[in-house]
Design goal:
By secondary structure, this protein is mainly β. It is built from three helices and 28 strands. The longest helix has 18 residues, at 2-19.
């Protein structure tokens, strides 16, 4: 009898492990699914579910300005919820598109979160397999000023949740990589605010869920079934934040020129964000005649930074033209250099002063880099750039 009781208890624990635990991490959300009858009402799989996902504004650092991206969330149904006979619980049964995915996992163990993260990764690999055109079961877009994305009338089951930029095409929001010791494919998606890149990993969410009566989700002391995951029960999108970078263009026009001697001009560029210097360098341009040149500093300066561009050397025989300025400031906006609204531009004009003097220049190049032991400033010197010769 003792052996039989242990066998029955192990079976019951297995059901609990499969269908009862609730795990919430930065990369996966797995619902609490049932147990012995503690709920006021038994499980009703004919009832539709509601899901809200938090997409609250976030800042990269304490005291920084919080921003939220224009985000859409796609839900892909991975498995149906099937009633476990004799228990107030359910199990998962994968739908055809995810037939090879193992969702019969004993959660609640120490590595359960990692296991479910792996399952979310595999489900995302199925959705975004090369040549696949799987359509989401439902899509919702964050409304202006909202802090949640909402879904209604969802069938019970297991869903893959994929946040992404609402205004981006798949080729722009989807990034593939490899992760883990087995080198399995990883899928990440992105959305953008003015200053930040929000990076998301796919997550699994089960509907309905069951919550512990003490306020925590667990495999014991379970409360009633929750069919509407809203408010404090809402899921979270859990993005990782990184800064966005923008292009800066320096335009230089030489209105008049002293024939027979190249003219070199040198500019320092310093960007400050939140009282910290985030970029510092020098740029040179060499002219062999009057005209216009441009130097593009691409994807190196954070959006929102205040940039000071100073013409520190204007040749031995040239001066700032009337109406121009030796020092100019630009607040970096989020715009590509090729776009019509690009305004991250510092423009300078010079004229020959008639003195007949000659001169040349050396550009000091500073780069903040990792030498293997930490971040250091690396200094090199370059002669003035010759027109028509690539850097």
């Amino acid at each position: 009898m003792k052996t039989r009781w242990k066998s029955r208890q192990r079976f019951r624990n297995r059901l609990t492990g499969i269908a009862l635990a609730f795990v919430m991490t930065a990369a996966c959300i797995i619902a609490a699914l049932g147990g012995t009858a503690h709920a006021a009402e038994p499980l009703d799989l004919a009832r539709k579910c509601v899901l809200q996902v938090k997409v609250e504004p976030k800042a990269m650092e304490e005291g920084g300005e919080a921003e939220a991206p224009e985000v859409a969330i796609d839900l892909y149904k991975v498995a149906d919820a099937v009633k476990l006979e004799g228990y107030d619980a359910y199990r998962f049964e994968t739908i055809d598109s995810f037939a090879g995915l193992d969702v019969d996992i004993a959660v609640g163990e120490a590595d359960a979160a990692q296991v479910w993260m792996g399952q979310a990764r595999q489900a995302a690999s199925i959705v975004f397999a090369e040549g696949n055109s799987m359509e989401p079961s439902a899509t919702a877009v964050k409304a202006d000023e909202a802090s949640e994305v909402g879904f209604a009338d969802l069938e019970p089951g297991l869903y893959l949740m994929v946040p992404r930029g609402a205004d981006l095409e798949q080729e722009d929001y989807l990034f593939r990589g490899t992760g883990g010791e087995d080198g399995t494919e990883t899928i990440q998606t992105v959305a953008y605010s003015d200053s930040y890149t929000f990076t998301y990993s796919p997550q699994l969410v089960a509907l309905p869920m069951r919550k512990g009566v003490e306020g925590s989700a667990a495999t014991s002391d379970l409360g009633e079934w929750i069919y509407e995951l809203t408010g404090t029960d809402a899921a979270e999108s859990k993005p990782a934040l990184s800064g966005r970078f923008a292009d800066l263009r320096i335009d230089k026009e030489l209105l008049s020129f002293r024939t027979g001697s190249p003219a070199t001009f040198v500019f320092t560029v310093e960007a400050v964000l939140h009282d910290n210097i985030v970029y510092s360098n020098a740029v040179s341009m060499t002219f062999d005649g009057p005209g216009i040149q441009s130097e593009l500093i691409a994807d190196r300066i954070p959006v929102g930074a205040q940039v000071t561009v100073t013409e520190v050397y204007s040749g031995a025989a040239y001066q700032v033209a009337a109406g121009s300025a030796q020092v100019q400031t630009v607040t970096m906006a989020n715009a590509d250099a090729g776009s019509a609204d690009f305004a991250n531009i510092a423009s300078f004009q010079n004229v020959y002063d008639g003195s007949g003097r000659e001169g040349a220049a050396i550009t000091n190049h500073f780069e903040y880099m990792d030498d293997g032991e930490g971040l250091i400033w690396n200094w090199t010197q370059d002669p003035g750039r010759t027109p028509g010769v690539a850097d």
